[in-house]
Amino acid sequence: MAKAKPNPEEPQYALFQPTEIPNSFRKAVQVVHSKPREHMSLLQRKVSNAWLKNAMETTADEEGWYTIGTQSMATDINFDSNNREYLKETARELMSIVFEWDVIAAEKKRVDWKASVLYTDIELTSDTIRYQINNQLRKSVLNPEMYALIDMNIIKRFRRGSSLAIYEHCIRFEKLGRTPDVAWEKFRDIILGQSSESKSYKEFKYFSQKVLKPSIAEINTVSDIAIEIHQTRRGKSVTHLRFDVVRAKNNDDESSPPDEATMTAIGEMVKLGVPQSEAKRMAREAPLEEIKAALHYTQNRMRDPRQNKIEKPSSYFRNALKNKWGIVEDIQEKPKSPAKPRPASGAVSTIQQKYEAHYVLEAERYFRELDVAEQEEAMGRYNETVSLPALKIKKRNTGKAAEKSFFNWLSKDTWGEPSTEELLQFANTIISSGSA
Questions:
Q1: How many structural domains comprise the chain?
Q2: Is residue 279 part of a domain?
């Protein structure tokens, strides 16, 4: 088995530890399910976790001040910057954020509104940070009856603030196996805060594409849990969200999180509409440089005002990766290939039929490899395209005609209509294999 590469950001002694020792604390649900009135950055969320953990493990002085060493905190949250002004600004903004507390439970208890700041005073010295916790919250925060068990070793892996917020929401319900249903607008405000950033996602489809999908992909890639999203709909509109939560498998291939470049590539693939399980599989199976080249090629093509709009960016990206269009584009002064002969119209028809039959079978295999939530999402989108009840996918007793129709649709939805060049390439493949 190949040796793991040392991580230069980890302390040297960690290289000799066979397993990472948990570094956990109990985070009160009042804080986990709070709704910040402003956007919280990734660093602010990490700093807040480090302060809460430190307050639970140390004793305040007579005036109620807690003290944490700057270097100790930096190690806990994987903050390697020497920019003290950035850290000071983060602390100042954190002190000014007003939270609405435990908004999920408050709905059940019929509490109209409860809000306050969490950190009332903060002081920075050359090597320490001192802070005070709101007196009204201190007891429930430091001795929580209900809490989420947060491991700082997991927290420091995240690169997106929304991923960290969703992770904390889900880890709270790990033992139950699922989160409660929450109105998607309320969930959006818990994750993003009631800020201008949150208000820019007034439609669910944008919130899903830009926030939910890449965040879920990151959680399932770097954390100790795996989550699947489920959507409650009223007609075609999404009203509520919930997540299934399970402990992540500790396979040898996935025992350590991928590097930041791979994580970023997975997130970019998900943004194009590639299901997260497929994106993770691509990241394991394809060279990272080829994935990045295909992403760059697809994104440039989408931004080019001279070109027709790409209706299915995920399909275009798959073809770009398969055919190495991005790699070919980077070759300087590529010699022009001689024109390939075009087959007769009758031959094109036969080749296209074989191509479509081949990719229908591929669509069946592809569907089985998707996560359950992604399978449900694909079936839901398909059902919206058909009007005949006999062709709709049902949870039970789906007919053969509906199955055939679904996999035909999934093939087109996944890979798009074949170009003439792709048909020629397919024809050459079946001729060389003797299956024509």
A1: 4
A2: no
